[in-house]
C-alpha cells in the first residue's frame, strides 16, 4: 500500500521538473522546420526524443546542454529562427556554405557563451544585430556578404570576403 501512496507523489515531482533538453530540442526543431534540407542532414532531429544531444550535428556538454551546432556545408536553405536564442550554452554556431537568407535574429544576442558565429557563404541580409555586441565571449564572426551591415562590434574579429576587418 505504501507504494501506491508514493507513486502519485513521484509522478508529481517528475512532472514539475522543467526539462532544458525539451526547450533546446524545441529550439532546434524550429530551425529544422524553417529550412529545406535536400540531403536529409537533419533527419535525426526528432521532436519526440527528449534529448537533442542524440541528434546528428549537435554537441552537448556533460549537463546535456547544447554547446555546438555543426551544419556547415549542409546545403540548407531557408531562414534562421529566433528560437536559437534559447540555446543558452551554445558556443559555436557553424552554418557556413549553405543558402540561408534573411536577417540574423536579434535573439542570438542572448547567447552569452557564444565564441564563434560562422555564416560564411550564405545569403543573409540586413543589419548585424547590435545585441551581438553584448556577447563578451564572441571572438569570431565569419561572413562574406556585403549586404550584412551593422555596428562595429568590439571584442571579436570579423572575417569577410574582403579579408579581416
From TrEMBL:
InterPro entries: Leu-rich_rpt (IPR001611), LRR_dom_sf (IPR032675), LRR_N_plant-typ (IPR013210). Keywords: Leucine-rich repeat, Repeat, Signal. Residues 1-15 form the signal peptide. SUPFAM superfamilies: L domain-like (SSF52058). Pfam families: LRR_1, LRRNT_2. Residues 22-61 form the Leucine-rich repeat-containing N-terminal plant-type domain. This is Leucine-rich repeat (LRR) family protein. It comes from Actinidia rufa.
